[in-house]
Each structure stands twice: as C-alpha cells, then as structure tokens.
Amino acid sequence: MQHLKKPKRNQKQSQVKTAQTKSSFNTKYAFVNISTPNVDREVKQIDRVREDYIPFGKDNLFPQYLADLKRHSSTHRSVLAQKTTFTTGSGFKTENNKLKEFISDVNADGETLKDCFKKLADDYYTYGNAYLEGVVYEGGVNFYHKDAATARVSKNKKSICFHPDWDNYKRTPEKKQVIPIYPEIKSDRFVIHYKDYESTFSFYGLPDYVAALEHIAIDYEIGKFNHTNFKNGFSPSAIVTVNGDFGEAEAEKFVETAKDTLTGSGNNSKILFLVKNADESRGTDVQILNNKEDGDFLDLQKLTDQNIITAHRWQPALSGIVSSGKMNNTGSEIRIAYELAMSTVIKDTTNILLDPIKKVINTELGIDTEDLTVIYEPPISFLSDIDPKQVLTINEQRAMLHKDLGKLEDGDMLLADRQLIRVEKQETITRN
User: Fold this and answer.
1) Confidence of residue 47 (pLDDT cuts 50, 70, 90)
2) Residue 129 included in any domain
3) Which one, of 3, 139, 11, 147, lies nearest residue 66 by Cα?
4) CA 280 → CA 9, 214, 243, distances in Å?
5) Which residues contact 18 (CB under 8 A, 6 or more apart)?
6) Residue 31: which domain range?
7) Which of 257, 279, 314 is the last residue of a domain?
8) pTM of the entire structure?
C-alpha cells in the first residue's frame, strides 16, 4: 500500500454529494463517493431540541437514508427479505377458535395478523425500529402497521410523531399525527414502539447491519460504476481509498496530485477513487491492481458481500455464497445454516415482535394467547437427507417401488434392522 498526503479540508467548501465520474474511453480517473451519515450518538440535551420531536440522525433523515440503501444494494436487500420471510413463516397457528377468528382479520382494511407482522419484521430489520398502532373500540381492537420511516419519538418521550415527509416537515406541520406509546399511556389509540437495543441510545434502536453501512454503499456504487464506466473501457489499474470529507475544488486538486504520483508522464493507468467519511488520521490508501487479472476488483465486491452478510448476523449458505473451491451448497449445509439463523436471529426477533401483540390481545379482548406461534418453513425440503432404510420398512419400500411387488415375511422391519440381525447371526455361526 502507498500513502498519499491529503490536503487539509476547507470547511467552507461544500462536501461532495454525488459521485463525480468521467466516462469516456480515455478517462484517467473516476470518483465514487461512499460517505455515510454519522449516527455515533443520540441527542443528550433534550432541552436544547427546538422541535417537538427527537431527531433521528444529524439531519433527522437517517431512516430515509436506510430506505435508500435497501433499494440500491442487491445483497443487502436480499438478506433483509430472507430475514423477513423466515420470521413471518407461513402464518400463525393456535387451537383457540376465538383467536383464530381475530388473527384472520385484524383491521378495517381486511388485513390478517400475518400481513401486519410481515411489515413489522421488515421495518425492524431495516430500521432497527418498528411501530404497530392499536385502535380500541367497544368489543374489539384493530392493529395497523405504521411505516417506521415516518416515525419520530416525541420530545416528551410519551408519544410518537408521524409525518409522511420529514424532508418538508416545516412546510406541512399540519400533516403530523401524534399517538401515545403503549403502555405508558392508556388510550383508545396507541402505538407499540419496537426498537433494537443499542447501548447509549435511549430513543431509537439501530439495525444489526449499522457497522456495514459503508460496505452497503460500496455495493450500490460498484454496480453503478460498472454500468457507467466499464462498458466504456474504464478498467482501473489502481483503487485509491480517501478517508475524510472533500470539497469539490479540493477533490480536483487532490486528483491531479494523485495522478502524477501514481501514473507519471505518458502512463495510461486509470484510477478509481473511493471517497469515505472515515477518520482522516487513517490516511489515504492506494491499492495497485493487476490488469491482467480481473480478480482484484472482483475481490472488492466479494469482500463487500461478506461484510454485509456478517453484519446482518446471517449465514452465507442462505444467501447463495458458496465456499471457495465448491460449486454449490449441499442440503445438509443449508439445513445447518437455517438452524443457526433460526436460533441466533429469527426466533428471538419473533418473540420480540409477537409478545406485545399477545399482551394487547389478552388485555383488551380477554383472549388467551399462550399457544399463538409462528409456523416456520425451512427454505428447502430436507427429505433428501433422510435415509429410507432408517424410516421405512422393507415392505413399505417395495410398495413404493412397484405396486405388484409382494410382501416379504420379514418385510415389516427396517432394512437396517434386518441387516443387523443377519450380521449377528453370522457372528454367532463363526464363533460356534
């Protein structure tokens, strides 16, 4: 790795907001901006907050940023979808007929509990927060999912403020809805606020993958970069990772210096600059690529995928990631991955989301919810892992092979058991 000295940032210069890329065949360099929002801490001095809500992120738009990432990173979106699907399963089961009737129709929109639960799970995994509205009426209660991107905790910490467009909140404050948090306030209308625990965060949760925001941004930018540059003949000979914020004028000056340092006069080398908002003390790294092999740049994509999956606490086998030297994952490997995902992520999340719902149903409707559970479905059939000799009798196997095959006298035992008997008989004869 080589290190380049980064010029001191001019605070008055604007930060680069979008990727600055030149796409012609003779391109000497390209910029990819992968800066991510700073969410290291929450507001601590509430009395200094001017609005009637607690901002989520420095600009109060952190959930909107997470929503954009979900739409732009294929690996990230795929893992989120898998987690949601496994958590929701194929629905709910219970032996209580009253409970069956209720979960089949939980609101005026005709949604089932599964419909609401799936949206809750999706929000919880995406934002680290999820919101379920309850509306109590005479003889019943309705449940409605509330979009987590529209929610902010009120300044008094006793209610949630909902607004359809936080970008334009000041222009349209009349669109705000304020709903008390359950069970802090008893009301005919309430909201359950689910939040994934994060140390030092009191008002909001953070999603599992928050440590991989940078890698998710890279996943998106790599795809965009490939589309706009590689097809036009841009194949980088070096990747320069720049830590710290850039103003546009500052960036141009740095690029010119870097080009001269890395390529020299008359050199046709082409450079990809990755601009990150990491600590400036980490310096600037230069990775020289071997143009004879495409592997170096592809390794960046592989590393990105792996980091995203790891941050999600997910299993590579469930995401289609195959170990080096293998063609695919076997059924047993997928089964093990599925069981690990269920025990470490899915079942815990299911309980977190379902327990408050069961409590409301029990309290408001007087219906016992003890046996209400999710019906889980594995991603593939595991029948291929079953040895027929261990579960089917000889005659059962013969009948499956052909209907005209008759029954054997000793055919009502497992083949494995008959083989064991024969071995024992042979050992007895040998001893005698």
Assistant:
1) confident
2) no
3) 147
4) 10, 16, 5
5) 33
6) 2-36+211-314
7) 314
8) 0.74
